[in-house]
Amino acid sequence: MENKIQVILIVSSLPLALFFPVTFAYAHVPAKPMETTVNVVIEGMVYCQSCDNYGSWSLSGAKPIPKAKVSVICKTYKKRVNFYKPFETNEYGYFYAELQGFEMGHSYLDHPLHSCRVKLVSSPLETCNVFSNINNGLNGAKLRFEDKTIDRSDYKAVIYTAGPLAFRPTYCPPK
User: Could you tell me how far CA 170 lies from the centroid of its own chain?
Assistant: First the structure.
């Protein structure tokens, strides 16, 4: 009895298959999501703090430092370094640090906002090369997301910002 039922079902579904071949051919093919690579970028500025503001976090009167070096260090939630690279500022004191090779093991705990910091490394100016702790430049400035992205057909990036960092002058006359 079971054999007759199976034959009847096959024969009765055959005309439907002939009328709707495209529907049956693609009905069970899962849609493959498109993979896109999104770059992680950190940007910021490096300044020489004015002697007038020595001992504070004020940057009024500060001048940008071209060719200053900063480092980006990212650690996993287990406190292991998984990314480190120094970057140099352009002629306006601005750095655009593209984190090529940065990977997140845990989507929340290893996120750049939680795991990456920017630190001062060196200043090319002999008159302004003393480290300051403006925006925690000594221990590592935290990042913030200001809703900046680049979304072009050939390049996608999410941009995080480090607060402005600064060196201070080697000598400031007493007030």
Answer: 33
